[in-house]
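Exercise 3.2. Students should predict the tertiary structure of the chain below and write it as structure tokens, then compare their answer with the key that follows.

Predict this chain's 3D structure.
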Amino acid sequence: MVRKPKNKILYTKVRMLRREGFSYGNIAKQCATSKSNISLWCKDIKLLPAQYNKLFANKKKVLELGSRRLHEIRVAEITEVKRLAEKEMNGKKINDFTFLVAGAMLYWAEGCKTNGLYIANSDERIILFMLKWFKNFLHIDINRIKAYLHIHNQDNDLVIKKYWSKLTGIPLQNFGKSFIKQPGTGHRKNILSHGIIRIQVCGKGTENLRHRIMTWVEQIYHIIETK
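Answer key:
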């Protein structure tokens, strides 16, 4: 038994709108009353399947519009963050010490620390950065760099080797045998268009160079720790 309110005109209008298939939110706006009242007064009214489908479609549309608007707001926020970040860097110059520190930290994070001197990554910018860093601070000629790929079984090994060779300047003959991930081996399945490349310094004195880098890392950490 639905309990009728004192305002019978409002009650009648609310029930009429609900029978026509309007949502509680829409009725609340039209009648200036709460959704809880509408729910109480209309709980015995059963909508037809077509009415339910229409309400669901309208709700979905509203949610999509809201989601799109939130996305637009977020894109605008990120654009502003990037603009301010670019402004912070305008006119700044990177001196040799800053370059040295940046490369040492990157090697600390991504490079080999125990046996050999190499760093692996899929990001072209990191690889190009480290090749320049190796040249500037370790005086490593490009011919001393060997490269190894980590790719999927469906990738064209030679095509990817040529891509990295052209990008980095590492001679094609300096590319070693690639590691090819076979399907069903438990490796992650997201495909990197050019795989992962490992650039490795070879030749006499390599171990000493790695110890030199890691000493730079220790000294940089000490400077920051005592700052």
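Discussion points: The mean pLDDT is 89. Helices lie at 8-19, 24-31, 35-42, 49-89, 96-110, 124-138, 157-168, 206-225.
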